[in-house]
Amino acid sequence: MKNLFTSLVKAQKEFGPALKSSTNPHFKSRYADLSACVEAVIDGLNNNGIMLMQTTHPCEDGVMVETLFLHESGEQLSSGKLHVPASKHDAQGYGSALTYARRYSLMAACGIAPTDDDGHAATGNVTKPVEQSKKPPPAKVEGKGGTWNLVISADKGADVGTWIDVVYDLTSKALGLAKNDADVMEIFKVNRSVFDQLKLANEDSYKNLMACFTETKNNFKKA
User: What are phi and psi of 15, to 5 degrees?
Assistant: First the structure.
């Protein structure tokens, strides 16, 4: 993997900013859409002999995306599979989930992190705007010490919607690493203080995240 890793380091030095190019009408803010994220990294990757590929895998309740880096030497690297449930089981719901999954998988794989405000559309959190919370996000909130401990910090004047997305993304990544039902329960118990703050900020987002816990537990039971 030496050739690929060397080229990835060089490519990352060429990555540009993922500009906030689209508008979320529900939160009246701007975010970097999928095309902006691809544009930020594709030249750097291609210039260093790396092909970007995103593949999908069978999934009953949503979409599962895997981002791959293919080097001209024949070496390849996978960023792992990212699962995103569809808010509605129709073309629009699956299409929104696919775009969301592709964008987040790409950002995680390439190490870019533009502000995101459209994740709510893919996960169903559009019925109540974040403005229901009049308090700014906590400067820092963290779970109890342990393997699954989450620590979320916010700069002064940070946007509540962005803070919610960070909580959601970190928790989703933790759930993706869980190996059994016990791990899922431990993630919840260790980070109860984080989820309590999320519920205060936006109850819809809290309910949606709790649904992810339930879904992950059910998947282990089916297996």
Answer: -60, 135
How far apart, in whole angstroms, are the C-alpha atoms of residue 177 and residue 183? Answer: 9
- 9 and 113: one domain? yes
Give yes or no: residues 103 and 70 share one domain. Answer: yes
Tokens standing for residue 150: 């989450």
Half-sphere exposure of 68 (CA within 13 A, CB side): 13
Domain boundary among 126, 154, 169: 126
pLDDT for 131-181, tens place per residue?
A: 445 567 888 899 887 788 888 888 777 778 778 888 888 888 888 888 898
Number of domains in the chain: 2
Q: Any residues with CB less than 8 A from the CB of 175 and at least 6 apart, and which?
A: 184, 187, 212, 213, 216
- Structural domain of 139: 128-223
Last residue of a domain, one of 91, 108, 126: 126
- Cα 115 to chain centroid distance, Å, stands at 11
pTM for the model: 0.50
Q: Are 11 and 44 in contact (CB under 8 A)?
A: yes
